[in-house]
Automatic annotation (TrEMBL):
SUPFAM superfamilies, alphabetized: Acid phosphatase/Vanadium-dependent haloperoxidase
Protein name, UniProt field: Dolichyldiphosphatase
Family of the protein in this entry: Belongs to the dolichyldiphosphatase family.
Pathway: Protein modification; protein glycosylation
Length: 277
């Protein structure tokens, strides 16, 4: 009767071999989960924002994965021998982890540094005039918090931080975020070499493929926008049923929601005051 038992298979999507006695190897095992985590982020952002730009970027990410799938079966280069002996599956050239992570980092950087055009400021005209009168021509900054505390205590600090949080990211801040994404991509790529799943050549090839794919996809989406194809697609009934919109390129979605909440809150307070009169 035992002869009829079907042997079980392992779902290798998150199955990573690492050295439990090596902290770096343990860290690399978690870095191997970054692509899966990013897919969850994509899905969450799509559901919560319904933004066309997020959808376009996710479609580009999936296209990049398809390119990796094709390249591996065209090149047919094996992984390092010791990985194959421990059960590693699939071809190794180019590294899909490196390609995925680099595409994400480059695509995010291109969006933040090239495509995203945030408004100059979200703070009200009165707040801006007050900041300028107090010597802050560029708007509120974190470096001014100590001076605010000396001038007006915690109340002044709170007002200053609120004004700062309503200021769009500067070019420098967007550059820092883009650089941080690049560092994450480099760590993911390096982890594949450290764990022994790929050779340096395979990881470099995957990184190059990811970067080229991201730049090419950015050019494609630029043409889609400039030719009006995106605007045309957003008029389709399905897009309207799903409430797909294209705002994040020029607006801060968090700020838009906050302004709506502020209007409702102020209206509720005014009604309460009238009622208590």
């Amino acid at each position: 009767m035992s002869d009829n038992i079907t042997p079980l298979a392992s779902l290798s999507l998150t199955h990573v071999y690492y050295n439990p006695n090596d902290p770096l190897s343990h860290l690399c095992a978690f870095l191997a989960l970054v692509p899966q985590a990013l897919c969850v982020v994509y899905a969450t952002l799509l559901w919560s924002t319904r933004e066309a730009e997020v959808l376009l970027m996710f479609l580009g990410q999936l296209t990049c994965e398809l390119i990796n799938f094709v390249l591996k079966r065209l090149i047919k280069e094996e992984r390092p021998k010791h990985v194959i002996s421990t059960g590693g599956k699939g071809y190794g050239m180019p590294s899909s982890h490196a390609q995925f992570a680099v595409f994400w980092a480059v695509a995010l950087g291109l969006f933040l540094m090239v495509r995203h055009r945030p408004p100059r400021s979200h703070i009200t005209k009165g707040q801006m005039q007050k900041e300028k009168a107090e010597g802050e021509e560029e708007g509120p900054a974190l470096v001014d918090v100590p001076r605010r505390y000396k001038e007006g205590g915690l109340r002044a600090v709170n007002a200053h931080l609120e004004a700062y949080s309503h200021t769009p990211w500067s070019w420098a801040q967007r550059a820092v975020v883009s650089l941080a994404a690049g560092v994450v991509a480099v760590l993911v790529a390096w982890s594949r070499i450290y764990l022994g799943y790929h050779t340096p050549k395979q990881v470099l090839a995957g990184s190059a493929a990811g970067a080229v794919s991201a730049v090419a996809w950015f050019a494609v989406t630029y043409m889609v926008r400039e030719t009006g194809l995106l605007a045309w697609g957003l008029e389709f009934p399905v897009a309207r049923w799903l409430r797909i919109r294209d705002l994040v390129v020029e607006e801060d979605l968090c700020q838009a929601g906050w302004e709506k909440w502020e209007e409702r809150r102020i209206l509720a307070l005014s009604k309460l005051k009238e009622k208590n009169k």
